[in-house]
């Protein structure tokens, strides 16, 4: 593009021509004097003598687009970039127009620009991918399928279908995305990977019945397609048909006895249904397939740990430790195992031997917490102090929270408040520290201080569900401001309808408002989701008030078996029996 045109258009920017404000409609015009009274950049309309020149018009559109973008008006910028892309034969202009329209969330312009980009650069894989997703978003499944077929062919093989699925997962119109993949399968029905991709996309969209149907249809054509069997098993598991899922996996194991991924999926499924009689032999077969595979040994150990088979998990972890591979991983999970089994001293020893790696920070934090629990918070003070000076600010804050929690559990509430005050000097306004201090104040009965800390979080983040729930529960439990508490808890519940702690708060405020039957429904659900002592105590109170006294005591006794020294449970038990 000639320098003469650039000079001409640059001159226009300071000429007394009609001008359009970036944020005004195309019809809004004002005088040059008014324009120079503001600091906001202006976009000028070119004079008739230059509009007829395509090169000048292209340059004008590009300059206008850049001015709009610099002013933050990306909608206006996307319009001018699209104009430039239509006029220019440079694929880079069309690419820029596509990206700006996407940033402006203007999908129609983005699609037009992507199509222009593709016309100018037909072999551009990126242009194909973007255009395919935009076609799916527009509900044009057939057009999307045609582009996806080109993407698949360009990438090639199984990887091509994996790329297709990763693209369609981004589509806003899920039905159009599934239709696009269905069309792709129809065009390539003799490729098992195509059926697998279709079923996997249905799974990603939580369309479990469709995933099951597609996987079964694919297996009728390709009975030896092991990945289709695995997808079918996942769909059946999501449809809460564990026996059918196990049958599908068992069939896959029989057909491919030497496939580690298949046996591993089968072992996971056995753990999920608590079929421990078949778990150990399956673990042994897995290890026998590759006895030197440290990743497989660790995975098997973690499955055994998940199943609560501590002895078996310990055996595998010690074998991993003896192999000299993944030693920090082995020590870390041995520490976790000892914690779960109640051998806290052994857990401390395991964590103490971890010096580096991805688990080093968590191991130090767990060791400090366990030392505080075993020997008192003072014994862990120096370790906590070191962790609180860590360069990772989030980790340092976690150390303050952990120490304060240890002090709170030991009854040293004033000391906990002091430590958190020190943390808040180091990290002013840190939400995690404010939240923990609010909990400590609530435990101490200092409701105004607790409320101040929770509200300080909400001043930073008005929709913080954790703070909304904590403040709502505190007001419901410690004051008579039940209506205010209810409003706060409902706001938290709208964000986290499946959070046991929030559901517990919801049940408790309903109880305080005298809505006992509704409270019981919420508290039963909360207790099913999380076997927590505080939830159990609240459920027991409501059951007692409704006359279900035997069940009330049964709930408390069951909870005390898990946590014999739970302060609130013991207090509620005393109060109900007095």
UniProtKB/TrEMBL annotation:
Gene3D superfamilies: Tetratricopeptide repeat domain. Residues 1-20 form the signal peptide. TPR repeats lie at residues 431-464. Coiled coil: none annotated. Keywords: Repeat, Signal, TPR repeat. InterPro entries: CellSynth/LPSAsmb/PSIAsmb (IPR051012), TPR-like_helical_dom_sf (IPR011990), TPR_rpt (IPR019734). PANTHER family: LIPOPOLYSACCHARIDE ASSEMBLY PROTEIN B, TPR REPEAT-CONTAINING PROTEIN PA4667. This is TPR repeat-containing protein. It comes from Thioalkalivibrio nitratireducens (strain DSM 14787 / UNIQEM 213 / ALEN2). The lineage of its organism: Bacteria, Pseudomonadati, Pseudomonadota, Gammaproteobacteria, Chromatiales.
């Amino acid at each position: 593009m000639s320098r003469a045109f650039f000079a001409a258009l640059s001159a226009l920017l300071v000429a007394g021509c009609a001008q359009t404000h970036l944020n005004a409609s195309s019809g809004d015009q004002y005088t040059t004097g008014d324009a120079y009274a503001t600091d906001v950049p202006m976009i000028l309309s070119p004079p008739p003598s230059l509009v007829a020149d395509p090169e000048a018009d292209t340059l004008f559109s590009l300059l206008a687009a850049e001015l709009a973008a610099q002013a933050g008006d990306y909608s206006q910028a996307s319009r001018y970039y699209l104009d430039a892309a239509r006029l220019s034969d440079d694929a880079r202009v069309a690419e820029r127009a596509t990206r700006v329209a996407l940033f402006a969330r203007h999908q129609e312009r983005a699609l037009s620009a992507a199509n222009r980009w593709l016309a100018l650069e037909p072999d551009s894989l990126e242009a194909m991918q973007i255009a395919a997703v935009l076609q799916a978003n527009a509900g044009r499944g057939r057009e999307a399928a045609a582009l996806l077929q080109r993407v698949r062919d360009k990438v090639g093989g199984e990887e091509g279908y994996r790329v297709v699925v990763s693209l369609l997962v981004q589509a806003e119109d899920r039905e159009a995305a599934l239709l696009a993949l269905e069309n792709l399968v129809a065009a390539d029905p003799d490729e098992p990977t195509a059926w697998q991709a279709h079923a996997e996309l249905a799974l990603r969209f939580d369309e479990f019945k469709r995933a099951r149907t597609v996987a079964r249809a694919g297996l009728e054509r390709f009975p030896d397609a092991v990945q289709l069997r695995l997808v079918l098993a996942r769909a059946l598991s999501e449809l809460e048909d564990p026996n059918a899922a196990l049958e599908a996996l068992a069939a896959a194991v029989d057909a491919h006895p030497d496939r580690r991924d298949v046996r591993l999926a089968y072992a996971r499924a056995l753990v999920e249904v608590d079929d421990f009689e078949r778990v150990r032999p399956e673990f042994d077969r897995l290890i026998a397939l590759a006895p030197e595979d440290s990743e497989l040994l660790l995975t098997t150990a973690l499955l055994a740990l998940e199943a609560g088979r501590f002895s078996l998990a310990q055996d595998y972890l010690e074998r991993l430790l003896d192999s000299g591979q993944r030693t920090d991983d082995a020590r870390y999970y041995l520490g976790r195992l000892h914690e779960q089994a109640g051998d806290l001293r052994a857990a401390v020893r395991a964590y103490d031997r971890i010096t580096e790696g991805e688990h080093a920070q968590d191991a130090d934090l767990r060791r400090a917490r366990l030392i505080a629990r075993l020997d008192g918070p003072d014994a862990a003070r120096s370790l906590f102090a070191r962790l609180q000076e860590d360069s990772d600010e989030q980790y340092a804050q976690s150390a303050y929270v952990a120490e304060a929690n240890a002090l709170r559990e030991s009854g040293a509430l004033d000391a906990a408040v002091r430590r958190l005050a020190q943390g808040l000097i180091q990290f002013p306004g840190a939400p995690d520290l404010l939240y923990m201090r609010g909990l400590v104040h609530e435990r101490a009965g200092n409701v105004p201080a607790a409320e101040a800390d929770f509200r300080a979080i909400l001043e930073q983040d008005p929709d913080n569900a954790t703070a909304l729930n904590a403040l709502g529960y505190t007001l419901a439990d410690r004051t008579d401001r039940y209506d205010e508490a209810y409003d706060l808890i409902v706001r938290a519940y709208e964000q986290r309808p499946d959070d046991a702690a929030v559901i517990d708060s919801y049940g408790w405020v309903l109880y305080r408002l005298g809505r006992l039957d509704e409270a019981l429904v919420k508290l039963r659900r909360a207790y099913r989701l999380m076997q927590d002592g505080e939830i159990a105590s609240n459920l027991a109170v409501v059951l007692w008030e409704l006359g279900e006294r035997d069940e009330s005591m049964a709930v408390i006794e069951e909870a005390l078996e898990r946590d014999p020294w739970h302060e609130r449970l013991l207090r509620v038990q005393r109060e109900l029996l007095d």
